[in-house]
Structure formats: C-alpha cells, structure tokens
Amino acid sequence: MSEHFMIDKDKQQKLQNIILKLHQGASVAEVKKEFATLIQGVSAAEVAQMEQALIDNGMPVEEIQHLCEVHVEVFKASLDKEKISSKVPGHPVQTMLDENKAARARLRALKKAVLAWRFGLGQKEQVLAALDDMSKIIVHYTRKENQLFPYLEKKEFTGPSRVMWGKHDEIRALFKEAHSKVEQNDKSAISSLHPLAGKISRMIFMEEHILIPEAVRRLSDEEWAHIRIGEDAIGFAWIRPGAVYDPYLVLAGAVTAKPQPAAAIPESTAIPAVGATHHASPVPASDLVELATGKVPAGLLSAALATMPVDISIVDAQDKVVYYSDSPDRIFPRSPAVIGRAVQNCHPQKSVATVNRILDAFRKKEKTRARFWLEMGGRFILIEYRALYDAAGAYIGTLEFSQDLTELRTLQGQRRLLDWD
C-alpha cells in the first residue's frame, strides 16, 4: 500500500487562500509575492489536496477547471523540482510518461507545420497530417478517464476526474474546431491551434507533477496491476507498453496462467454443428442464470450480450455501474475499472446535472426513458436510457444502450429472403 503522508494544515489553509484570491479575480502577479513565502517545500501532494479540499468545501468544479492552468503557473517553480521515479516498461505510469514524451515530439512537429503554413512555406495537408497525429493523445486522456480515475475515486480523490476531464473536453473541442478550419484552408485556425498546443503542454505538466505523483502515492501495487490489465480495452497513443511489467505476476506472486475472457463460452455450452450429435455433459445448475423466461448458461448469456449490435451498460439503484457489454466494436470505450464506479463519474462534469436529472425522474417515475442522438465521426449514434423496475414497481436501476444507426437509416424497401452475397 502507498505510504501514508501528512500535510501541514496551516500551510494548506494558506495555499487555499491564495487560490481563493485567484478565483475572486486576483491576477497571478498579485499572488506570486504572497506565494513566495510558502514556496519552500511545497509538494504536488499539497497542491492536489488543496484543490480536493476546495471541491469538498463546495467550490464549483467549473471554477477550479477554469483556473487550474493558473494554479500550474503559480506552483510551477516548486513543482518543477519534483521528479517521478521511473517504472519498468509496461507499468501504467511508465506508459503515461512514454506517451507524454511522444506527445512533446508531435507538438513540435505540429508547431513547425503551422508556422510553415502561416508564412506560405507549407500546405494545409501537412498541418492536417500533424493535427491528426497529435489527436491520438485523446486515447491517452480516455484511458485516464476510464482506468486511472476510477481507482483514485475509490480513494475519495475525485478532483482529477472532475477537473481534468473538463480540460480534456476543452482539448477535444479545440481539435475539432482546428481541423474543420484547416480543411477549409482558413488560416484563422491558427487562433485555435496555439491555445490547443498550450493546453496540451499544460496538461502534460499537470500529469507529471500533480496527477502521477499523487496516484503513485495513493495506489497500491495491486491496484496498478488491475489498472494495467484493463488498459488494453481502451488502447494507447503512439506506443505499446513494454512487456517487462507483468500485472498477473504482481497479483499472484508467481507466474500463473492468465484467465480466459469473461465472454468465452464453456465447452459444455457450445452449440453443435448442424447434423452433429451433442454429447457434452449437461451444464451444472450453478452455471445457469435464471431469468424470467428461461435459464441460460452464464457463458452463453455473456457471449450473447457482447454480440448484440448495441453498447449496453447497467446501473443499479445506488447509481453504481454493475455491467457493460464487452463488445469488440463498442462505440464508447469501457474498461473493467468502470464496474462499481458511480455513473456520475463516468461523464464529464458538464453532463453530471443531466445524468442526475434523468435518474431522479426515473426514481420518481416521472419519466421512464431519455433519448439522445448525435453525429460522431460521420456516424449517426442513438443513445438511450431506460428506467428499470422490479415486479412490485420499485426502481432498481437504469439500462443505457447506444447504437450506430448509420446503415439502418439507409434501408429501403424490404428483404424477405436470405442474401449473404
């Protein structure tokens, strides 16, 4: 388990006061002098605890999100002195650091392409190529949101997931805006590209000097192993993790066989070929899931749910995610760390009020369905929430499902015969 640490309460209060002055409109220059008296020995832990305390005491997350880059500027001198201990290749921390190193190189390439385009020495296609390459960092952010943040939330450290996710979305929006303008050969895109590069650079700094040190301090070796096991479900930006770090070895204490995917169908439940005689032993009763209209082998049910042409998530009455369908073609990424996570934390902060409104209406039976649709990457996506009630009518949870309707919207006429050509 990570080493316990103590924070000077008096210094913590003074740090909070400085940030509160910033939130009340003071400039960075105005607080720097006051901060100079506290700069000696300030750690990433104190910065992180300060922001977490502000959230816990009721400060809107949006305010901290709006000014967290100012916080970085204020604390940069002291945080620059902190070093992250290197990890073996494949450890989630080392993977994040390797991706950040790759991101810095892409940032330099993007800035070079933009400069050449600005002065007529390059083409928009070069900027688009550099921008598309740089946008792979979104996978890095998505992995943080779905794998690292849930484990920090279990430690009641919710600041990163609430604040950083908002900053990720700002970067996503700038990517979209810049790409659209560059495609149109609109050089006003440069006004989007400069803040984009700045936000990415500051996010790298916040990760390496605040988020990662705090995560290393708070999470155990076993928790890092579970994080690594779930990372492949999300993917990686530019690099592949090294193979030196073995999470299964960490968890087992010895080399063990890696478990089969949950969706694998046990041999006893496999469907025989047409015309074949099935001699497999009956499925043990303990392996059957009893449903309202039948009993299904657990492996068969899991495979069926994962094969459905929709993304499924189930949230219980306590707003905890208890299931998601692990389809290889998911529209929105999910990983094992989401299980047991508050559904509110599975959405960016700007969407939490809407999530709570839906759940509250479901509980009160004011509504039983909420439906949204959007266009994403040229695809038409339907997202729907359905309230779940037991036989007595009591609210027991919510079903969320998403479906890509792009091809279905083009269907016309009818097809009544099998056509596999």
If you had to describe this structure to a student in words, what would you say it looks like?
This protein has 421 residues and is of the alpha+beta class. The protein contains 13 helices and seven strands. It has helices at 9-23, 28-36, 44-56, 61-79, 92-118, 124-134, 137-154, 159-183, 190-218, 221-231, 247-252, 298-307, 349-363, and strands spanning 288-291, 294-297, 311-316, 321-324, 369-376, 379-389, 395-404. The strands form two sheets. It has a five-stranded antiparallel beta sheet with strand order 4-3-7-6-5, with helices on one face. Strands 1-2 form a two-stranded antiparallel ribbon. α7 (137-154) packs antiparallel against α10 (221-231). The longest helix is centred in the middle third of the chain and has 29 residues, at 190-218.
What attributes characterize this protein structure?
421 residues, alpha+beta, five-stranded antiparallel beta sheet, two-stranded antiparallel sheet, 49% helix, PAS-like_dom_sf, Hemerythrin-like, DUF438, DUF438 domain-containing protein
Strand-helix topology:
Elements: H1 9-23, H2 28-36, H3 44-56, H4 61-79, H5 92-118, H6 124-134, H7 137-154, H8 159-183, H9 190-218, H10 221-231, H11 247-252, E1 288-291, E2 294-297, H12 298-307, E3 311-316, E4 321-324, H13 349-363, E5 369-376, E6 379-389, E7 395-404
Antiparallel strand pairs: 1-2, 3-4, 3-7, 5-6, 6-7
Helix pairs in contact: 1-2, 1-3, 3-4, 3-9, 4-8, 5-6, 5-9, 6-8, 7-8, 7-10, 8-9
